[in-house]
Amino acid sequence: MTAPLADIQTETDIKTLVDAFYDKVNQDDLLAPIFNGFAHVNWAAHLPAMYDFWSSLLLGTSRYRGRPFPKHLPLPVDATHFQRWLNLFYATVEENFAGPNAEQAKVRALNIATMFEYRIRKYNSLSIL
To answer: Where does residue 10 fall: left (phi above 0), alpha (psi -120 to 50 degrees), or beta otherwise?
Structure first.
């Protein structure tokens, strides 16, 4: 029998979540080209920002400073990309954690994916002609 999974409670847990998730993203045939080919993500800078982002959301640290949406607006993504992102995120959480903060992480991810997909679709469909 395997031991029950712990909840997300520490900065080490946040780092585990973020690192494991982006390992999946970097191996994904749909998302890796967006992150590495189109966006040319600087992982040395991006990962610490994501630690701060998720720490702020899940542990209440208020360390994240920034506006994440504008960076995503020029990306060539659609609902399929957001669904894959969400599936990978859920899988990462479920493989590593269980508890209220783990469930909150999934809720927050769903809200982020839904809002970003909606806003990108709405922005890209605007036409003044």
So the answer is: beta
